[in-house]
Design brief:
DNA Polymerase III, Chain A, domain 2; eight-stranded antiparallel β-sheet; elongated; nine-stranded antiparallel β-sheet; alpha+beta
Amino acid sequence: MKIECSKEVLIENISIAEKTTGKNLTLPVLGCLLLDATEDDVLKIRATNIDLGIELRVPAKISEPGQVVVPGNILQSVVSSMYDSNDITLSLSGGNLSVSTPKSKTIIKSLPTEDFPTLPEIEKDDITFPINTSDFLKGMQSVWYSASTTTIKQELSTVYIYIFDKKIYFVATDSFRLGEKTLTTSKNVDFEPILIPIKNVVEIIKVFEFLGDQEITVFLNNNQIIFKTNDVYITSRLIDGNFPDYKQILPKEFSSEVIVLKQDLINVLKKINIFSDKSNQVQFSVEPSKKKVILKAQNKDVGETTETLETAVSGEDLQISFNHKYITDALHSINSDSVTLSFTGLSRPMVMRGVSDNSFLYLVMPMNK
């Protein structure tokens, strides 16, 4: 194997692929990248941790075809540290990988290529549909942080995606909060509900951000989802389970409602963060008669702060506490300048929406005092 390619392009693609590698001590090959130079003018960089796999296609000048498997973190560090040339040569030297420029040569020990796992392939019976990366990215980014970080209930450690009334719904919950993003697409899309593991969603988001706005083809079967463009191939395992019937817990009536400028709320919550205790508690005092909402946080080791927001308020007086970080997390998913906070009463959830954006809904459970 002997190939030449741009250092800048190589680093960019290795960095994306390396994030997909596994840290499995019993299977060190999962921490590696497969470099495949068996196709004309294309270097394929492949990585997998079994749950998630990726293959990136990089333009390259191939003098001698071949394959090699090397540790991803080592290769990334070596290529990143090359400084004297923007052209890098990759070749085999005694079965190992040589990374060289006119003034530098580094040998990285390789692993057997036959030990590297294959990626799931597209089957002829797979459900197929096109979608823009920006749409799918927007859906995942809007809700992923609401998913559970533990796998005790694996259905809650996912982003749930389904079709209803020609709209795509992205949903995530950890049972303390829930995010729902709705997208209307002009594409002819139809599939059964799917559950993508949250750890895979985080990596898929990074790849989609790298890709930018372009059309991608999605392939679905019972246990895999595959995303494919001319230069990228991503495959993720799907969770076999049933997502909670969350529609049943969405409030239909509200006892109090507050409309506040999003930036004002962001600024107040930044200060609340300084004074909140380790449970991140913030107390909301809703006072419709005075057209204001008072937010209060206290920490016995730091002090306390009371912040007043003069807003449009209607309904009943209410004093209730929430985890302020949960509220802050959702604000980046709201596209409008103003936010509606809809309360359903003491010990009951609050619903957040953008005033001019009905595509996103966020529900937060209150905290016990």
